[in-house]
Amino acid sequence: MTDLKNKFCKNPWDFFLIGTNYSTQCCYIHTNIGQIKTNDIFDVWNSDIAKDVRKSVFGLTYPNI
What we know:
This protein is mostly helical and about 60 residues long. The mean pLDDT is about 80.
């Protein structure tokens, strides 16, 4: 487990990882924001889950670490 307290990750605003059954915005945050093969890439990038991840990073709360 990585201690990210007081650390800011800019990845959720300009990067995301695509796996077989998931997409995530940061290597430390393992929240699935959507599947590219079943959704439009822009819908995944702007999904409610993706927005919640960005809010959590901005607030330094980092879910699912």
